[in-house]
Structures are given as structure tokens and as C-alpha cells.
Design a protein that fits this description.
With 309 residues, the chain is mainly α. The protein contains 16 helices and 2 strands. A hairpin with a 7-residue loop joins strand 1 and strand 2. The longest helix is centred in the first third of the chain and has 19 residues. The protein binds magnesium ion. It holds the Pfam family ADP_ribosyl_GH.
């Protein structure tokens, strides 16, 4: 498998996980496999909770906004990404993270909004920057570890003032980079943890350890640490794309985002051909604030190709 195929797997895999997990958000553990006991049986892209079958949520919508900025600007243009986020947030998306919404609508300039929110709230380590990182991870992978992790931190900082969120997003970018190279992401993890900012290294070392289980999480999985740790656990504990995403959704809680992160990793690792066609066929990404556009598999695949080129 070449890096272009793996890049497509990351982008599509993340979107599929998001859409598959959305109807189960805030639900209990095990809800998915209770409803769909046998892997491969079909009908899983079921919709519900306000979501149509196959409809991707804010995770993928924001990932597409980042991707289109990177491709149209030809560089990392942070004010442009922030402006696209603001246009989207002002167009009544079906879902938007509480913290992200506050930062994008508080009237502050792009380079202060998240920092001021963090100063006031003191809580900004949500998974909302990690959830949207599949596209930027593909785009910056060619630049090497420092460049891709730095880009992840800067894009995360647009909406998240807490460095914990930057570091988790940076770890995800680097995991995708090594996977696109054809390396083993789980084997690379100890080295990646060494690249985390020293203040945040111990907590990431804990949730990314080979013997960590989501049951040991000390926060809900809407927080960045257990979200990333759970996605890595789902990859480690299973042997294929479908099982990895099922395991992620079965954890309950913030199911769309944990499955989006898992799907990005598993899609890059196992490749796009392992993502069930019955999941990609109904997949669609509405883009509020972008003239009513809706991206489907061909457009997402094209986006991934251009990001990887
Ligand atoms: Mg979502």
C-alpha cells in the first residue's frame, strides 16, 4: 500500500467513524454491539439522534474546512482557518463543541480568542482539536516530525488554549505520519511520547501505554487524553478497521469523536479498501456556511489525494 492510499484511508476512515458513532453519542458502553451484535452484518450506518444515516458531524466538517484552507491558501494560514471556522459556526451547524462555539463567537481576534477563553474558564482540554486533525495530519506528514507536530499545535491553538489539547493533536499528527510511511504506529509510540512537551509527557505516557485500558480513564472521553488513549487502545486491541471502530463506539460517551480519531488511525493503517463499502456509500459531509455544499466519497477521496500530493 502506498502513502496516497493510506492518506485516503485516514481521511475517509475518520469521516466514517464520525458518522457511524454520531447516533450513539452520550450513550452507554456497549450500545453499538447490543444493537449490531455481528460484525459485517450491515445496517450499522443507521442515523438517529438528529443525524441522517451516513451524515458526518462537526468533527469531519471542521476537518474539511481546515483541508480546504490548506489547499486554497497553499500554506498554513491560521487567520484564514479561523475565519472559515467562524463562518461555519455562525451558520447553525447541527453540533458544535461548547468550547469551540464560545471561542469562535466571542468576538475576539483569531490569535487571542482561545487563550482568553482558557484564562477565564481554566478548562480547555477537550478533544475538539484532536477530532478534526485527520486532514491536516495527512497534509503535513511529508514535513517530518517537528513540522507536522508544530502545525498540529498551531491549528489546535485556534480553538483550544490548553496546551494539553495541542500536545494530543500533535501526537495524532505524528502517529499518522509514521503510519503513512508504512511504519508500525504502536511501535513508534514511545518515541512519539518523547516529543511531547515535558509538562504534558507523563499524562500522555500513561494513556498511551501498552497496558492502559479506557476503564482507567480519569476523565470522560470528551477530554483529550482519554480520547486519544481510547483510539490507540481500539487500534491495539483489534485486528481490522471495522473491529477497531466498533470497539471505539462501544466505549460510549463521545462516540463520534473517539470513532473519528480511531477511524483516522485505523484507516491509515489498514487502508481504504478495508473500510466497508456499506459505510462509505451513505457517507456525506454537509458544510454549513459553504453555500449548501455536501461532500461525498468522491469529493473526500479527491481532497485526500490533493492533501497528500
Ligand atoms: Mg461531532
Amino acid at each position: 500500500m502506498n502513502r496516497i492510499q493510506r492518506s485516503v484511508g485516514a481521511v475517509i476512515g475518520s469521516a466514517v467513524g464520525d458518522a457511524l458513532g454520531a447516533p450513539f453519542e452520550f450513550g452507554p458502553a456497549g450500545a453499538f454491539s447490543t444493537r449490531f451484535p455481528a460484525p459485517g452484518a450491515g445496517g450499522e450506518m443507521c442515523g438517529g439522534g438528529g443525524w441522517d444515516p451516513g451524515e458526518a458531524t462537526d468533527d469531519t466538517q471542521m476537518a474539511v474546512l481546515v483541508a480546504e484552507s490548506l489547499l486554497e491558501r497553499g500554506e498554513l494560514d491560521l487567520p484564514d482557518i479561523f475565519a472559515r471556522f467562524q463562518r461555519w459556526a455562525a451558520s447553525d451547524p447541527k453540533d458544535i463543541g461548547l468550547q469551540t462555539e464560545d471561542v469562535l463567537t466571542n468576538g475576539m481576534p483569531w490569535d487571542l480568542a482561545a487563550a482568553i477563553h482558557f484564562q477565564v474558564s481554566q478548562r480547555a482540554a477537550g478533544n475538539g482539536s484532536l477530532m478534526r486533525a485527520a486532514t491536516s495530519a495527512v497534509h503535513f506528514a511529508r514535513g517530518g516530525p517537528q513540522a507536522t507536530m508544530d502545525a498540529a499545535r498551531r491549528i489546535a491553538a485556534l480553538t483550544h488554549g490548553d496546551r494539553a489539547a495541542w500536545e494530543g493533536t500533535a501526537v495524532f499528527h505524528e502517529l499518522i505520519r509514521v503510519t503513512l510511511e508504512g511504519a508500525e504506529p504502536l511501535a513508534a509510540l514511545p518515541g512519539i511520547v518523547d516529543l511531547v512537551h515535558p509538562d504534558h509527557r507523563p499524562r500522555y505516557a500513561t494513556v498511551l501505554a501498552a497496558d492502559w485500558h479506557p476503564d482507567q480513564a480519569t476523565e470522560l472521553n470528551g477530554a483529550v487524553w482519554p480520547c486519544l488513549g481510547s483510539a490507540v487502545w481500539a487500534l491495539r486491541a483489534t485486528g481490522g478497521f471495522e473491529d477497531a471502530v466498533r470497539a471505539a463506539i462501544d466505549l460510549g460517551g463521545d462516540t463520534d469523536t473517539v470513532a473519528a480519531v480511531t477511524g483516522g488511525l485505523a484507516g491509515a493503517y489498514y487502508g481504504p479498501d478495508t473500510i466497508p463499502e456499506r459505510w462509505t456509500a451513505p457517507l456525506h459531509v454537509p458544510l454549513p456556511g459553504s453555500g449548501g455544499r455536501v461532500l461525498r466519497l468522491p469529493q473526500l477521496t479527491d481532497l485526500a489525494h490533493r492533501l497528500a500530493a
